[in-house]
Amino acid sequence: MSDRTLEVGPLSARRGEKRYGVVEFLVQGQPYKLPIWLINGNEAGPTLVVTGGVHGAEYASIAAALDLGRSLDPKDLRGRVIVVPVINLPGFVARSIYVCPLDGKNPNRVFPGDAGGTGSEQIADWIFRNVISQVDYYVDLHGGDLIEALVPFTIFFRSGNDQVDATSLEMAKIFGIHYLVSSVNPGSTIAAASNAGIPSILTESGGQGIWTAEQVADHTNGLQRLMRYLKMLPGSTPEPTPFTLLEQFLWLRSDHEGFWYPQVSVGEPVRAGQELGYIKDWEGNVLQTGLSPDKGTVLFIVSSLAIHENDPLFAVGA
Q1: What is the Cα–Cα distance from 167 to 118, expressed in whole angstroms?
Q2: CA torsion angle for 106, 111, 115, 117 (degrees, to 10)?
Q3: Domain count of the chain?
Q4: Has this prediction a pTM greater than 0.70?
Q5: Is 175 domain-assigned?
Q6: Are residues 147 and 191 in the same domain?
């Protein structure tokens, strides 16, 4: 790849060009289709990748990625942008919660992937090698899944590389969502990118199968702010907005199959040990009490009455 041409698989865009295409590659021996936009600006600058749909039913994030791919004009752009609006296309088509239907795995737990692995692992491997590894900055758009309510927040990864981590945190601040959450969980898109030396953030807005204009704008406005900060788009450099930094992202999962009765709402402050919900059986007997693992803020909570064993129930930012 030259420093002027942007390429992903057989799709390419020269300086000043914008290209849309559906790139095909083999996953488990079958053709896998991935819609992609390449936008190569008139002037040299950083390369940014924006992905959506790692979880196929997180619609506000997908709608925002689609808006970005359609709207970006290379005449206004300094640098290059790759937009992959739906990574987990089988999950999107199937309205699948959490997982990719090809193997039942959560795609955001298998990065950077495995070329000889299962379906999700092969997709992650191709995306990481052909898209993420060639960029300077990375934003992965997410939201609450079909059965999740959440307050918007941005996750950055603590890789141990001070320079990368500091840049990722600065990206999170500039993006403009109030809650910033530190993560050290392996297997995510941003963990793989950060460990490879690529500053990255994962943004969350929307959920429960809903994608309001405000939720989509949390993502698109943040992307505009970030690209102005990186001098990729014209306009004044935005200042960081007020934020709350949460150093721990604490989840609680279900130990039972049954019925879930949450007792709090997203964004609510909670204390350590507070009862946040109950799992009950058919008779109404309590099988499990969901206790807050620490003092903090409820970032997401499952809104489905039906609950499976090992399903997430909620997460607290502490």
Answers
A1: 33
A2: -40
A3: 2
A4: yes
A5: yes
A6: yes
